[in-house]
Structure formats: structure tokens, C-alpha cells
Specification:
The chain is an alpha+beta fold. The protein is about 20% helix and about 35% strand.
């Protein structure tokens, strides 16, 4: 009887995310999350390969907010706010994690984003950031790539929307750069 793949769970706590960051979840040379402080989530609350409006997969994660988070100390003095680029990075992290979870091989690299809209901020008084990603296209051939839309919520209110973000998994960084410059396959 086959052993269940521990990497195919439907949710992950912080220990599971840190195992991924150390290369223990999907194997050496494959998708990893960054280590703290660049790890922008505390847990993945939901991941599946058939959800979302396109039926290609979805992933949801959360970050507990407290005023001692590293970015509030430097962005900006006397006006602390979570940088929007960190929210975008969290969404990219989630797409890379999803591709590894689906069995894709290679190291994750963000390849771009079509559109980003901000309509709010993450302040030190917030309690929780929720990230949600819907995969629109998942390519699992020699090229491993996900194209997705995402939203960021703070305490339940949408503050950030992203369309057409792309993440790929690559054996080497040179191939990642070439793919970033090329149009997505039809």
C-alpha cells in the first residue's frame, strides 16, 4: 500500500511552512518558502488542486499581525504600515508553494504580475492578514508555471487585488530569467 504524501495535506501550520523553507517538504532543489522574516504567512488554512472559479486550484493563508513585526519598525518612521510589495510577495510565495504541492519540480521564481490595485493598508493595529489565491492556469510539463489572481484582506476587508501573477519552477536561474521575458504559452 502506498504511503500518503505528507506534502499533500490540505493545510499547514507554521512548523510545516518552516519545513518547506528548509527544503524538507518537497525535497532538495524544489519549491521552498523563504525563511522569516521574509516568510509572509503563519499558516496555510486551505489548499486544494480543484478549487477556485476556474477549478484549477486555490490556496488561503494567514499572517497574525502585531506591532513588533520587523517592517513596522522601518516603513515608515512615525507612520508604520506593511509595505504593499510584501503582500504581493506573500501571494507569489503561495503560488510557488502550490506548484510544489502539486508535484512540480524546481526552484520557485516570481515571473511577473499583470495588475495590482491597493485600496487599504495593513497597520500595526490590525489583527490578521488573509491571503487568497485562485489559480487560473497550471502548467505541469517541462515548464512548470502557475498563473493566478489573488486578494489580500486585513481583518476581513479586501485591501489589495492582484491579477495575472506568474510563478514558475526552474532547475536553474538562467531558465527562470528567459521565461520571465517570454510570453506565456497559449
Amino acid at each position: 500500500m502506498d504511503q500518503p504524501n505528507p506534502a499533500r495535506k490540505s493545510s499547514f501550520d507554521l512548523a510545516g511552512l518552516l519545513a518547506c523553507a528548509r527544503g524538507e517538504l518537497f525535497g532538495p532543489g524544489n519549491a521552498r518558502l523563504p525563511l522569516p522574516p521574509m516568510l509572509m504567512m503563519d499558516r496555510i488554512t486551505k489548499i486544494n488542486g480543484t478549487g477556485g472559479s476556474a477549478g484549477k486550484g486555490e490556496i488561503e493563508a494567514e499572517l497574525d499581525v502585531n506591532p513588533n513585526l520587523w517592517f513596522f519598525k522601518c516603513h515608515f518612521q512615525d507612520d508604520p504600515v506593511m509595505p504593499g510589495c510584501l503582500g504581493l510577495d506573500a501571494l507569489w510565495q503561495m503560488v510557488g508553494f502550490f506548484l510544489g504541492w502539486m508535484g512540480g519540480l524546481g526552484k520557485g521564481r516570481a515571473l511577473g504580475v499583470g495588475e495590482v490595485k491597493f485600496s487599504g493598508m495593513v497597520l500595526p493595529t490590525a489583527k490578521k492578514v488573509t491571503y487568497y489565491v485562485e489559480l487560473k492556469r497550471v502548467i505541469m510539463r517541462k515548464l512548470v508555471m502557475g498563473i493566478a489572481d489573488g486578494i489580500v484582506k486585513v481583518d476581513g476587508k479586501v485591501i489589495f487585488e492582484v491579477k495575472d501573477m506568474k510563478v514558475g519552477l526552474f532547475a536553474d536561474a538562467v531558465e527562470a530569467l528567459k521565461s520571465a521575458a517570454a510570453p506565456a504559452p497559449a
